[in-house]
C-alpha cells in the first residue's frame, strides 16, 4: 500500500490521500504450475484422443458381441457382459498362447539382460577407445527394420540355410529349425534377444558409468578382487537400473508380435503364437469383441507382472 501527500490551501497542513490497493503479482509457484500445464496440454490432448478414448471404447466392445458384420448395423450389438472373457478362459488356443507368452518372458528377459549386462561391463572396464563405435554397432539391431531382419533370419534358419550349411561343414546334420515345434520357439526367442540386448546394454552402461570410482578404489585397498567388487558393489548399486530394464523388457516380451508373426507366423502347430498374435487373428476374423477382451487380458498380465517386479526389486533398492 502506498500513500501520497496532497497539498491543500496555503497555510493549511497537508493531508494524506486515500490508500491505493497495489496489484497482487502471481506467486512463482502458481506461475510454474501454469507453465507446466501449458507444456503438458498438447501431450495430454493427444493421449486422451488416441489412447484413453480408444481404450475406453475397446473396454466397451469387450463387453459386447460386436463382430465384423455388425459395423454396418451397430444398433444390433448386444451387451454380453463377461461372456467374451469366460470364452477366452475356456479356449485352449488362448490358454496355449498365454503359456507361450510366459515362455517368451521367462527365457527372453534373463537372456537379454545377461547379454546386455555382459557387453556393458566389457565396454565400461576394458574397452575405452572404441566404446562409442562398439556401442553404436551393438545398438544397431534395435533400430534395424524388423522385416528385413526377419527375412535374414528365415534364410539363415531355413532348411539348407546358412546355419545348416555351417553345421554340415562341421559334419552335423542340421534340423528343421522353423518346422520343428520344439526348435521354432528358441529361434524366435533368440531373434527377440538379438533385437533388444542393445537397449539393456545402453541402460546398464549408463548405470555403470554413474557408479563413483572412489568406491572401487576403496574396495581394492581393502583387498577386494574384481569378482567381489562386482558382487558387493556393482550389482547392488545397479538395482535401480536393473528394475527399469527388467520392467521394460518384460512389457516388450509380453506384447511380442513381430518376431513370431514374421518368422514363423505363429507355427508350427501354434508353438510360437503369442497373446498379441492371437488378438490380431481374432480382429482379422471379425471377432472384435473377443479381440478387445484378449487385449485387456494382456493388459492385465502386463500390469500384474510389472507390479510384482516393482514389489520385489524396490524393497532391495
Describe the protein's topology.
Layout: E1 5-6, E2 15-16, H1 28-61, H2 83-89, H3 92-125, H4 131-143, H5 146-157, H6 162-169, H7 181-209, H8 213-221, H9 226-237, H10 239-254, H11 258-263, H12 275-284, H13 288-316
Antiparallel strand pairs: 1-2
Helix pairs in contact: 2-13, 3-7, 3-10, 4-7, 7-10, 10-13, 12-13
Notes on the protein architecture:
This protein is an all-alpha fold and 317 residues long. It has a single domain, classed as MetI-like (MetI-like fold), CATH 1.10.3720. The chain has 13 helices and two strands. The protein has helices spanning 28-61, 83-89, 92-125, 131-143, 146-157, 162-169, 181-209, 213-221, 226-237, 239-254, 258-263, 275-284, 288-316, and strands at residues 5-6, 15-16. The protein has a two-stranded antiparallel ribbon with strand order 1-2. Helix 3 (92-125) packs antiparallel against helix 10 (239-254) and helix 10 runs antiparallel to helix 13 (288-316). The longest helix is centred in the N-terminal third of the chain and has 34 residues, at 28-61. It is globular and about 75 Å long. It starts with a strand and ends with a helix. The model has no long low-confidence stretch (mean pLDDT 83).
Amino acid at each position: 500500500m502506498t500513500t501520497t501527500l496532497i497539498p491543500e490551501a496555503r497555510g493549511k497542513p497537508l493531508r494524506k490521500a486515500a490508500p491505493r490497493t497495489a496489484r497482487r503479482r502471481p506467486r512463482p509457484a502458481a506461475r510454474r504450475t501454469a507453465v507446466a500445464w501449458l507444456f503438458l496440454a498438447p501431450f495430454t490432448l493427444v493421449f486422451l484422443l488416441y489412447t484413453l478414448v480408444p481404450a475406453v471404447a475397446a473396454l466397451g466392445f469387450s463387453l459386447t458381441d460386436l463382430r465384423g458384420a455388425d459395423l454396418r448395423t451397430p444398433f444390433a450389438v448386444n451387451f454380453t457382459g463377461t461372456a467374451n472373457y469366460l470364452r477366452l478362459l475356456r479356449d485352449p488356443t488362448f490358454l496355449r498362447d498365454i503359456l507361450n507368452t510366459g515362455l517368451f518372458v521367462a527365457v527372453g528377459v534373463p537372456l537379454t539382460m545377461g547379454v546386455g549386462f555382459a557387453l556393458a561391463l566389457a565396454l565400461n572396464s576394458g574397452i575405452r577407445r572404441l566404446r562409442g563405435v562398439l556401442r553404436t554397432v551393438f545398438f544397431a539391431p534395435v533400430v534395424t527394420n524388423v522385416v528385413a531382419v526377419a527375412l535374414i533370419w528365415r534364410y539363415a534358419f531355413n532348411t539348407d540355410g546358412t546355419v545348416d550349411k555351417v553345421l554340415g561343414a562341421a559334419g552335423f546334420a542340421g534340423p528343421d529349425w522353423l518346422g520343428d515345434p520344439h526348435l521354432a520357439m528358441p529361434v524366435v526367442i533368440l531373434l527377440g534377444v538379438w533385437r533388444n540386448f542393445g537397449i539393456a546394454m545402453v541402460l546398464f552402461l549408463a548405470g555403470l558409468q554413474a557408479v563413483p570410482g572412489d568406491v572401487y578404489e576403496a574396495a581394492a585397498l581393502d583387498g577386494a578382487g574384481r569378482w567381489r567388487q562386482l558382487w558387493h558393489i556393482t550389482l547392488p548399486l545397479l538395482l535401480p537400473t536393473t528394475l527399469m530394464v527388467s520392467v521394460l523388457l518384460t512389457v516388450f516380451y509380453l506384447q511380442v508380435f513381430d518376431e513370431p508373426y514374421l518368422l514363423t507366423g505363429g507355427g508350427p502347430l501354434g508353438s510360437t503364437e503369442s497373446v498379441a498374435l492371437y488378438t490380431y487373428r481374432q480382429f482379422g476374423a471379425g471377432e472384435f469383441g473377443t479381440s478387445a477382451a484378449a487385449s485387456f487380458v494382456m493388459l492385465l498380465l502386463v500390469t500384474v507382472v510389472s507390479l510384482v517386479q516393482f514389489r520385489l526389486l524396490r524393497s532391495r533398492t
